[in-house]
User: What shape does this take?
Amino acid sequence: MRFERASYPPEVGPIFSLSIHADYQCEHSGVCCTSDWDVPAELPIYRTLDQAMAAGRLSAPGLPNEGGPIFSREDLPDDAGAMVARTSTGDCVFYHRHSGLCVVHRDLGETSLPSTCRHFPRVAVRDWRGTFISLTHYCPTAASMLFREDVPLEIVESPAAFPPAAYDGLVVDPDAWAPLLHPQMLMDLDAYSAWERHMVRRCADSSASPESVIATLTRDARLLRAYTPGAGSLLDAVATLPSDLVEASPPRSLDESLALFAGVIDAVPDEFTPDADEQMLPDAFAQYVIPEWEAWSAPLNRYLAAKAFASWTAYQGRGVLSIVRGLEAALALVRVEAARQCRDNGRPLDAQQLREAFRNADFLLNHLAGGEELAEGWSRVEDGCP
Ligand code: SF4
Assistant: This one.
């Protein structure tokens, strides 16, 4: 697949996703409506909701009987007319706890939803090649999709769940640089696409442990970094990366994972930094996680694929090694969160606890930490830092 730079204006283009996400449908878990998140309503949406409330076509079931504000105007982003208010427990006022439904969606339709609600849990990157959509696995439905065995893991075009549209996410400026191979050299977009597909292909090897996937991609990234112009194309260099796997075992201790976890926490603004909660985690990891870890390679590798695909670090970081360091950190977060689940529940790792670990890892990565700050930290690996 080749891309002509002038063929695709940045707001339009083909849509890509991972096969495991391609038929995503909201199952109304309500997580995004009860997480105490800011929900800005764009001005036309705010007017629609306000008029519908005034005309009695819309209610706010989250409000107490004595009533309360439906909108607020504090800390408004530029294009917002108002913020949707929340209850004292952090529910959106339009969330109907009894049915688990959003009454805006139910009574006015999807087009009346604030864009934040329409786009969650999609996490997109738009560049000259098109739009690349991954999901945040903080959404329980998305997290469950990591366990599916009914489709091979691959990048697919025109996924049914994501029709052509302008998706929220990282919009790469048309004049921005292509992803960096390393701090001194740019990639071309054909080579970057090949590298992205290469990373996903490595993750699709269900016989490989996630640690082997990381070790192999680290080897491959280092080989690619050695590329010099004049020795064939970078696209060819990706195509001729070795096919063998670098075997690696899961760590016996949680120490390195906790260090990578701390690096992610460093990228979280102070006001959102969660309280430290690491007591007994190394013990829980050794007792409950390690003995079960190998059984979960397939969903863990699919999680890694979701980080390799539609990577923001490709544009915000300083090279292919930074992208792989980001995958390593994501896996470390899952280890830490899996240990936390098992410690709290007092039982060995199982599917339900691993799903919660994916959710908590992505809450940190996608909703608390800053993408630029994460990429800056992970890019230190380009300077030879451990
Ligand atoms: S407007 Fe609807 S979808 Fe958006 S947060 Fe509120 S209840 Fe959820």
Notes: The longest helix spans residues 320-345. The pocket of iron/sulfur cluster is lined by residues 32-33, 39, 84, 92, 94-95, 102, 104-105, 113-114, 117 (CB under 6 Å).
